[in-house]
């Protein structure tokens, strides 16, 4: 029986261990052949087949006791950087790294900065093949990452350089003309969303800049921000009234549907559909 099989069998025999991260970490560590780890090549004495807790601690730049506390499940204040180093040392897959982060921190691991060109093909195809209603993808700071053809026809501002939903809706004069009942139906909702985002991601520089820019640029937004304490996470299901050139300035009632693509959960996938039936979607 191999060391890997023995570790799995031994861990499975502890009924009180369940599917804990401790059990998984031990199994993942036993799976790695220490002789294949470049960082341990010049360690004396030369390591054998078994990758020890001491080895992992050395590879991740912490004390053996610090790593042992992680594997024992005794602490939950480990940094993202340390957990990413553990994932690399144990050669964890994307799903295994996700499991480690969720078990230890309750959060998903950080994603590297990605661009529009990095959109998964399935997500891009779903967006481009949506020809009935406007749809777009935005990031955590409401920058428009991609939009379908109909979104560009309804809202030509998404075709401008570096389009941002919040900047257009809260600062651009045409938004106050096209979004009816602008203050109550638009500004208050969007500012409440910004308040949630700013408190959820206090270290996000893009969000800080966005909030500061909006409050500095517009007196109405400053007043609403100071007066209101509402918080809104998203506008899924929110109904609002539009008067767009695309519809010859006739009033249209629409609702937004906010989805999270499983392959890019850092993005919002938003559809805009008419409340009163498909007839309103026609130009």
From TrEMBL:
Domain HTH cro/C1-type: 24-97
Superkingdom assignment: Bacteria
Coiled coil: none
UniProt-listed Pfam families: HTH_31, MLTR_LBD
InterPro entries: Cro/C1-type_HTH, Lambda_DNA-bd_dom_sf, MLTR_LBD
Transmembrane annotation, as ranges: none
Listed PANTHER family: BLL4672 PROTEIN (PTHR35010:SF2), BLL4672 PROTEIN-RELATED (PTHR35010)
The protein's name: Helix-turn-helix transcriptional regulator
Species this chain originates from: Streptomyces luteosporeus
